[in-house]
Specification:
It contains ten helices and 21 strands. The protein starts with a strand and ends with a helix. By secondary structure, it is α/β, with parallel strands linked by helices. Strand 13 and strand 14 form a beta hairpin. The strands form five sheets. The protein has a nine-stranded mixed beta sheet with strand order 6-5-7-8-4-9-10-11-12, with helices on both faces. A four-stranded mixed beta sheet has the order 13-14-16-15.
Length: 460
């Protein structure tokens, strides 16, 4: 005999609790627990009535061999924006739903205007742009400024989901852009606009629309203060592709990073540059992170980082001066401060550099963000060069992770890193031992520890 049991389940993380609480114990979000009625068996044993085999239904379409399924329907169509196509895996698939999330003012709307413009001039059909945050006049002004006005780009300022579906029925576009999903309102769903229930209902409806009519859909999403996609976690599971639009407001560099992709690699990165007349892709972004000068000065070193599958050259700069304070300063920009502190400790212990009472300033060039351990060796060279006044040898890049014992450890993708460095005119590379097969055009100098790296990398 089954009886009804009341429980409370979180809309965000699906955590279940027997009592209601204002804050979910699982994910920590407020106001996400909702009451649910469940059937439970009396006496703790399984209820036979609730464990019966479900009634079999006739499938709408029979199962067919995998070899007979046509794969051309899911072939990617290039959007015309090369860096975005790189992240998407060659283009956008008809019927796919792409979620582009980023901070306000980063340039998401500017990028999507460029996408719909390239889509229209490429003869791929009509593109319908739905704006829920701005008026049609504001979008028109931005389109004129960026040169993205086209007669096959249709614009509508709407926030009602049913009206958006009506626009799709009337115009029959091949690409639909919704800016943003948090501003859309589904009349048949509870909650306020932008709430958890509304965002889930709107995304589910637009996903069903895309699959049923074969329309490629681009959704703009907001992010929280932690950088995560705003809304329930199920939002990322509903869509096919999740992209993060990143960029510092003080820099013109913007990056589109793939987080999830059902049609390609999920670790690709696309680089863009914000300009007065719009946004433009950067096919070779390594030059942005190098300071072009005649000759080498002390305190600088070049490394090669992997951002996804893309090797990027970056320059690290260090400045070491005597401190007039009881506690010396450690100012870090563009690097992990805890990683910098570890490298400084290794330098003082295993290289004999007395920098404990000095102010140390470390930064990257061009607003680059370096977080992987493969830049440890270049950071150590830059600091040692700043202390000794001996610059790094011309045309040398340093790749390697430093251990606490002063050893240089191997890193992944050494061949691709060195090939990128050789392409940009760096013929010499300091690498860890046993780095695998390396390009023949580059002179690879294997260094096993920090002392050998400083001896080989710095000028005499």
């Amino acid at each position: 005999m089954a009886k009804t049991r009341v429980s409370f389940r979180c809309n965000e993380c699906s955590h279940s609790t027997p009592k209601w609480a204002g804050r979910c114990p699982g994910c920590g979000n407020w106001g996400t627990l909702q009451e649910r009625a469940e059937l439970a068996a009396v006496g703790g044993g399984p209820d036979r009535a609730t464990t019966r085999m479900p009634v079999a239904l006739l499938p709408s379409s029979p199962a067919v061999p995998l070899t007979t399924i046509d794969a051309t329907a899911t072939r990617a169509v290039p959007t015309g924006v090369g860096e975005l196509d790189r992240v998407l895996g060659g283009g956008i698939v008809p019927g796919a739903v792409v979620l582009l999330a980023g901070e306000p003012g980063a340039g998401k709307s500017t990028l999507l205007l460029e996408v719909v413009h390239r889509w229209a001039i490429g003869g791929r059909g009509r593109a319908l742009y739905i704006t829920g945050e701005e008026s049609a006049g504001q979008v028109r002004l931005r389109a004129e400024r960026t040169g993205t006005v086209h007669e096959d780009v249709l614009l509508a300022a709407e926030s009602d989901l049913a009206t958006v579906v009506g626009h799709v029925d009337h115009t029959a576009p091949s690409l639909l852009v919704v800016d943003s999903v948090q501003t859309m309102l589904a009349q048949d769903a509870d909650g306020v606009t932008g709430g958890t229930t509304q965002v889930r209902a709107v995304t589910a409806a637009l996903t069903a629309l895309a699959k049923a009519r074969g329309i490629a859909v681009l959704l703009v999403g907001h992010v929280t203060k932690d950088g995560a996609v705003a809304g329930p976690r199920t939002l990322e599971h509903l869509v096919d592709v999740v992209l993060h639009f990143e960029g510092d407001k003080n820099s013109t560099l913007r990056m589109v990073r793939g987080v999830k992709n059902r049609f390609g690699a999920a670790d690709e990165v696309g680089c863009f540059e914000m300009r007065d007349d719009g946004i433009a892709g950067i096919a070779d972004p390594s030059g942005l992170f190098l300071h072009h000068r005649d000759g080498t000065v002390p305190g600088t070193a070049v490394t090669v980082t992997m951002d996804g599958k893309r090797p990027l050259l970056g320059e690290l700069q260090a400045l070491v001066v005597e401190s007039a304070l009881p506690s010396p300063r450690r100012a870090v920009s563009g690097l992990d401060s805890s990683r910098v502190a570890m490298v400084l400790a290794v330098l003082e212990r295993h290289a004999g550099l007395k920098i404990g009472k000095n102010d140390v300033y470390v930064a990257t060039v061009g607003g680059m963000r370096v977080t992987e351990p493969a830049s440890d060796l270049a950071l150590a060279l830059a600091v040692a060069s700043a202390v000794s006044g001996r610059p790094v040898r011309d045309g040398t890049v340093a790749i390697g992770e430093l251990g606490l014992a002063g050893e240089v450890r191997r890193v992944t993708g050494a061949g691709r890193r060195i090939a990128e460095a050789a392409r940009l005119g760096f013929p010499t590379a300091l690498v860890p031992p046993d780095s695998g097969r390396l390009p023949a055009a580059t002179r690879a100098v294997e260094v096993s520890d920090l002392a050998a790296a400083l001896e080989s990398g710095l000028r005499t």
